[in-house]
Amino acid sequence: MSSEGTKRLWETEPGRKTALAEVVETRGAEFRLDRTLFRPKSRAYRHPQRADGGTVWVQGGDKHDLVAVVERGGAIWHRIHGADLSAGDDLQLHLDQDQRELDSRAHTAMHLLLRAVTQIVDVTLVDDPEVKGGGRFRLDLRGWSIRPDVLAEAVDRVDTWIEQDVPVDRAYDPRDVAEHKLDPQPFEEGQPYPGPGTTIEVVRVDGVCAYPCDGTHADRTGELDELVLREADPRQEGVWMVVGEVPKPGRY
Ligand SMILES: [Zn+2]
């Protein structure tokens, strides 16, 4: 068992909030599981999204906060506070569902704004688009035609797609097939369709955009409610730092 990978429940059962799992290996304070709910931060598709949060109950014992979940060399390592675990221990995992949903909505919004901006002006991506906490995401764009009114037009376009409540789907496609159907991302360094291997994950917003992505997403664009531009700061050499945000649940 220890040589096999951890089953990634966020891919196979994305709506799942709790799960039983078994410790298969420990290394110091870190441990691996046979299956996990907790998605680590990944840069494999150049759309980093912060790692999931949650809690872990040790069988017959206490509840512990998840401190970290990271992927190294294809293996997913967890760390919790104040528990000395051994291989064979049974755990109950509880996902922080509010955080996951907020990050998923922010990630979908990030795809939409990237698509809208690249439809309107020529830009390049100076850095990887990133989902931060609190419903926020960040794009670092370079383009001499970027102006506040251009960004406002892009946000209007995103809000229209949100109102249209478009379905968001995930597919696993062979790379050579996928590349014909994907929208390019104008990275300054590297190829426009990031992702490992010959099969890539594709997140498609029907009729709007399709990008390679291993992040989590809303099921439909209507779940985003709206997109707010939090920051749009011109830096040097035509670079703009753009921070977008989707509202948290219960704001109204
Ligand atoms: Zn993405």
Query: Do you know the CATH architecture of the largest domain?
Result: 2-Layer Sandwich
Class from helix and strand fractions: alpha+beta
Which percent band covers the strand fraction? 25-35%
Proportion of helical residues: 10-25%
Q: How is the CATH topology of the largest domain named?
A: Threonyl-tRNA Synthetase, Chain A, domain 2
Task: State Rg.
Answer: 19 Å
* Anisotropy-based shape: elongated
Order of helices and strands: EHEEEEEEEHEEEHEHEEEE
What is the tally of helical segments? 4
Number of structural domains: 2
Spatial separation of the terminal alpha carbons = 48 Å
Q: What would you say this structure looks like, in words?
A:
There is one protein chain. The chain has 252 residues and is an alpha+beta fold. The longest helix has 24 residues, at 97-120. A six-stranded antiparallel barrel has the order 2-3-7-6-5-8. The chain starts with 6 loop residues before the first strand and ends in a 7-residue tail after the last strand. Helix 2 (97-120) crosses helix 3. The protein folds into two domains: 7-95, Beta Barrel (Elongation Factor Tu (Ef-tu), domain 3), CATH 2.40.30; 99-245, Threonyl-tRNA Synthetase, Chain A, domain 2 (2-Layer Sandwich), CATH 3.30.980.10. The protein is 20% helix and 35% strand.
